[in-house]
Amino acid sequence: MPAEGGAIQVHLEHLLAERDMTLTELAARVGITNANLSILKNGRAKAIRFTTLAGICRVLDCQPGDLITYRTDGEGAAESG
Question: Is it the case that residue 1 has pLDDT exceeding 80?
Fold first, then answer.
């Protein structure tokens, strides 16, 4: 459930497309299951371990802020990150 007044958005699909990488490849390189990574990609995750976040950032060569952002209600709802 999103936090009251805002929501965390996950930009994993965009980062994967930029790097021409599949979800399956990322999951294998990070060492997590496709199912768990898919939950994160689809915005259904309730939490993420720092070790998982660090692994994704290492493999995708990005910062946590490239992967997740916080948006308040009404802030750029139609924008893509």
Answer: no
- The answer to whether residue 20 scores a pLDDT higher than 60 is yes
Please give the structure tokens belonging to residue 14: 């965009």
Mean pLDDT value across the chain: 88
Assign 3-class secondary structure to the chain: CCCCCEEEEECHHHHHHHCCCCHHHHHHHHCCCHHHHHHHHCCCCCCCCHHHHHHHHHHHCCCHHHHEEEEECCCCCCCCC
10 falls within a domain: yes
pLDDT digits (tens, 9 = 90+) for 53-67: 999 999 999 999 999
**Does any domain span residue 1?**
no
Report the CATH number that the domain containing residue 14 is assigned in CATH: 1.10.260.40
